[in-house]
Design goal:
alpha+beta; Beta-Lactamase; Arc Repressor Mutant, subunit A; 2 domains; 5-stranded antiparallel sheet; about 60% helix
Length: about 230
C-alpha cells in the first residue's frame, strides 16, 4: 500500500533544512527514505543500502519488507541494489514478472507483492558505495520523471553518507595521531631516564630501549611506560 503523497518540492526543501553536523546519520537517512517514499509517485517501500569492505547492510528502511528484499540480495550476492551500488547508476526493473537480468531476486520480490523496483547508486567514496532502493506494488510504477525525482533524493543521501564517511575517517586519523603523540612522549621520557642512569647519548638510550622491547617481546611503548612508571614510583 502506498504512503500518503507529499509534494516533492516541500520534501526536498525539508531535507535541505537539516543540519548534517547536528543530526545523527541514521536519522538523516531515515528521513530521506521516508520523504522519498511519500514524494516519488508509485513508491511503496524504500531502503538505503551500504556496501563497504565486502559487507552489505541496510541502514535505513520504511518497512520490514524493504529491508527483507535487500537482505535477500545480500544473502544471494545477486540483485539490482548491489549492481546499482557497484556501478553508481540507476537500475530500473519495470516489470518483475518479465525481468531476466536478476531472475532470482525478481521472483522473490514478486512473491512478496512487489511489481517493479528502482535502485539509485550512491557514489560516496572509492571504498564505500550504496543505493537508494524503491519498491512498488505495481509494474511500470516508476516513469522517467519519478526516476529523476528519486535521483534527487539519492543525491542528498549520498552527501550525508559522504560527510559521515569523511568525518569517521578524520576521527580515526585524529585518534591515531593522538596515540602516536602519546607513544612518542612516553618513549622520550624513558630515553631521558636511561640517559640519566647510564650517562649515555639519546641514540644509545633508544637502542637499549629497543633491545629491552625485543628481549621481553613487548611493544616499545609498553616498555617505555613501565620504565617511566618505575621511575615515578621507586
Amino acid at each position: 500500500m502506498e504512503s500518503p503523497r507529499t509534494d516533492p518540492g516541500e520534501a526536498l526543501a525539508e531535507l535541505s533544512r537539516i543540519r548534517l553536523d547536528e543530526v545523527e546519520l541514521a536519522d538523516v537517512l531515515d528521513r530521506v527514505a521516508a520523504l522519498a517514499n511519500r514524494a516519488v509517485p508509485g513508491s511503496a517501500h524504500v531502503s538505503v543500502s551500504l556496501s563497504q569492505a565486502g559487507a552489505n547492510r541496510t541502514i535505513a528502511h520504511t518497512s520490514d519488507l524493504a529491508r527483507e528484499l535487500d537482505e535477500w540480495q545480500y544473502r544471494h550476492d545477486d540483485g539490482p541494489c548491489l549492481d546499482a551500488a557497484v556501478s553508481a547508476v540507476s537500475v530500473s526493473l519495470p516489470d518483475l514478472a518479465e525481468e531476466q537480468r536478476w531472475p532470482g531476486s525478481a521472483a522473490h520480490a514478486r512473491s512478496a507483492g512487489t511489481g517493479s523496483s528502482l535502485s539509485i547508486g550512491l557514489p560516496i567514496q572509492e571504498a564505500v558505495t550504496g543505493a537508494l532502493n524503491m519498491y512498488a506494488t505495481s509494474p511500470h510504477a516508476f516513469d522517467h520523471a519519478a526516476t529523476k525525482l528519486a535521483e534527487e533524493f539519492a543525491a542528498y543521501a549520498a552527501v550525508a553518507l559522504a560527510n559521515a564517511h569523511l568525518y569517521t575517517t578524520a576521527a580515526v586519523l585524529a585518534r591515531q595521531m593522538q596515540e602516536a603523540m602519546r607513544s612518542r612522549a612516553v618513549i622520550e621520557q624513558a630515553k631521558g631516564i636511561i640517559m640519566g642512569e647510564r650517562r649515555c647519548s639519546a641514540g644509545e638510550a633508544f637502542t637499549l630501549l629497543a633491545k629491552l622491547s625485543q628481549d621481553t617481546n613487548r611493544k616499545l611503548r609498553e616498555v617505555a611506560e613501565a620504565l617511566v612508571a618505575r621511575a615515578a614510583n621507586p
